[in-house]
C-alpha cells in the first residue's frame, strides 16, 4: 500500500488538528502500519480512497478512528524503571513529610495511554501499606484517545503486556488471570481513575497535583503547542509539586515555567514570579556565551 505525499500531509494535518501532535516526516512510515487494520475492517482498499471518504464526509466517525489509529500508544509497566525508583526514593518520602497534616496526595499521569504507568504508580503505594495507611491518594490517568482510556479503565492486559515490566511476583499479586488475559485486581483498579483529556486544554483540578507525569508526549508537539502544554502542566501543579518528563524530553530551552530540581535529577519544579525572571536572565546569559 503506497502512501502518497498528499495523503500523508492530509493525515498529518488531521492528527495535528485533533490532538496537537505532529506526524513528522521521519514518523510517516507508521501510517501504513497504523491504518492497515482499520482499512481492512472498513473494506477500504487504498489510503487515497480513505482520504476521499474523509474529505467528502461520507462516514461520520471515521476521522476519529483514523486519529485513534495514528496515535503512538507505546507504554509498559514501570517503563524505564529508574523514574519510579526516583519517585520511591525522593518524591514520595518528601511528600509524606510535607502533606502529613492533610494526609492527601494527588498525582496525574498525562498521556497515560492504556494505563500501565498509572497502575505502576498505584503499586508503589499499595506495596507500602504501613506508610500510606489513612492517606487519601488520588491517582488520575488521562489521554486524548477514548479507546485507550477505555482499555485502561478495564485494567485488562495480554500475557505479553504484563510481562513487560512486571516480575512474576507482582503479576500474581496484582493481577488475576482470566480468559482474555490478565486483569488488575479490584483493589488496584479502585485506587485509580481515568478520563479523556488533551494536555493542551485546561487541566483537571488546577493547582492541585503534587506530581505530574507527562512522559514521551511533548516530543510529538510543535514548538508553540509544547509551550502551551508546559503552561497547562504548570497550572495543574501545586506550587511545591514535581513534573516528570520522558527520558528524551527536557524543559531546557522549551519553557520558563519549570526548572530542574537540583536534588533529584529527572524531576522539575514549577517556577513562579521572580524565579521565572531569574531563569530567563540565566538563559540569555548562557546563550550569549555559546
Automatic annotation (TrEMBL):
Domain of life of the native organism: Bacteria
InterPro entries for the chain: Bact_Chemotaxis_MeTrfase, CheR_C, CheR_MeTrfase, SAM-dependent_MTases_sf
Gene3D superfamilies (UniProt xref): Vaccinia Virus protein VP39
Pfam families per UniProt: CheR
Domain CheR-type methyltransferase: 1-273
PROSITE patterns named in the record: CHER
UniProtKB keywords: Methyltransferase, S-adenosyl-L-methionine, Transferase
Name of the featured protein: Protein-glutamate O-methyltransferase CheR
Organism in which the protein naturally occurs: Sphingomonas anseongensis
Amino acid at each position: 500500500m503506497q502512501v502518497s505525499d498528499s495523503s500523508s500531509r492530509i493525515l498529518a494535518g488531521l492528527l495535528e488538528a485533533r490532538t496537537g501532535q505532529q506526524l513528522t516526516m521521519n514518523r510517516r512510515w507508521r501510517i501504513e502500519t497504523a491504518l492497515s487494520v482499520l482499512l481492512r475492517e472498513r473494506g477500504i482498499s487504498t489510503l487515497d480512497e480513505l482520504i476521499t471518504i474523509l474529505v467528502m464526509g461520507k462516514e461520520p466517525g471515521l476521522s476519529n478512528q483514523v486519529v485513534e489509529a495514528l496515535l503512538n500508544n507505546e507504554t509498559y509497566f514501570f517503563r524505564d524503571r529508574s523514574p519510579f525508583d526516583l519517585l520511591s526514593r525522593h518524591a514520595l518520602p518528601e511528600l509524606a513529610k510535607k502533606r502529613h497534616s492533610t494526609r492527601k496526595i494527588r498525582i496525574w499521569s498525562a498521556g497515560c495511554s492504556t494505563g500501565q504507568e498509572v497502575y505502576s504508580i498505584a503499586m508503589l503505594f499499595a506495596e507500602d501499606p504501613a506508610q500510606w495507611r489513612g492517606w487519601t491518594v488520588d491517582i488520575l490517568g488521562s489521554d486524548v484517545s477514548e479507546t485507550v482510556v477505555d482499555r485502561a479503565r478495564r485494567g485488562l492486559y495480554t500475557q505479553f503486556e504484563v510481562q513487560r515490566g512486571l516480575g512474576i511476583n507482582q503479576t500474581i499479586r496484582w493481577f488475576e488471570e482470566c480468559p482474555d488475559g490478565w486483569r488488575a485486581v479490584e483493589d488496584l483498579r479502585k485506587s485509580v481513575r481515568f478520563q479523556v483529556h488533551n494536555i493542551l486544554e485546561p487541566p483537571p483540578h488546577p493547582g492541585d497535583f503534587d506530581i505530574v507525569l507527562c512522559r514521551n508526549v511533548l516530543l510529538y508537539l510543535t514548538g508553540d503547542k509544547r509551550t502551551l502544554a508546559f503552561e497547562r502542566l504548570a497550572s495543574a501543579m501545586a506550587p511545591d509539586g514535581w513534573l516528570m518528563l520522558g527520558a528524551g524530553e527536557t524543559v531546557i530551552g522549551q519553557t520558563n515555567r519549570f526548572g530542574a530540581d537540583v536534588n533529584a535529577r529527572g524531576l522539575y519544579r514549577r517556577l513562579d514570579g521572580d524565579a521565572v525572571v531569574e531563569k530567563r536572565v540565566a538563559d540569555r546569559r548562557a546563550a550569549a556565551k555559546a
